Amino acid sequence: MANGCLYGGEFINLGKKVFAGSLLSIMLIIVYVFVFAAPFGSPWGWLVAKYKLDKYSKAVYGDEIKQRGVLTYNLKDNSYWYDLIIKGNNAAVTIKYNPYRRDISDSLLYLEKLDEKLKEKVKAMDNVLGKDINLPPATAYFAIDADQDFSNQPLKRKDKLYLLGITNTDVDLTPEQSEEKMLEIISAVYKNLGDEYNFTSSQIIYTDINGTKETDISAGDSMLPYEQIKQKINDIAGGEVQDQFIKQLKDVKSGILSKSEINPYK
Known about the structure:
There is one protein chain. The protein is α+β, with helices and mostly antiparallel strands. Helix content is about 40%, strand content about 25%. It is built from six helices and eleven strands. The chain has helices at about 1-35, 45-60, 110-125, 175-195, 225-230, 240-255; strands at about 65-75, 80-85, 90-100, 105, 135, 140, 145, 160-170, 200-210, 210-215, 235. α4 links the parallel β8 and β9. The radius of gyration is 27 Å and the shape is elongated. About 25% of the residues are buried.
């Protein structure tokens, strides 16, 4: 009986050691993944990126391509990338896969003409939105949707619109009217840009007498009723320029300043 207890105790101790060893192994794996492997991306992320980029490069550029260097993880923008050398083209082409946005960017397919047309179209809208509305220069991020058959042309894009500093000098707006006006402006911008772009996201910052607001509204969202998308608008702390602009608007409302003296960028 005593021997049975002895063996039972040894078995329990052995089980504890195995458990402790397993726990230590798991902790070491976690440390490796988050401390040492993080700068190089995860093994699964590397495999997915390699697959996506290889499929894209072959479909778009054909077999006359050569990969230069190895697939590399960029910790700064969370993307995997490598360079391509195309036969008959001395310049290297950089292609990137972002696992968070699930898109591919291609340095050779930078859509410069689309970008210039975007700037021109938004700039022209300053004259049609009313004298109180001022639009900043528009910019965009153009990328290829990574979740598609790359052999089908044209390739589906995932574009992001940036309008960082819309201002409105109307001093009689209520807080709710501010949100409604912001969405009205965004909807008008998207409508004017047409179907040439595929804006699936945005970063839009708007300031009027009631404060500074930010939103991420897609072109599709902009067609929804106000009640369905108002929750996408967030109040944010503006910078020194926005704070000074709001002060000027309040001075206009109180009669200290005339509207002609307002300078949104002072």
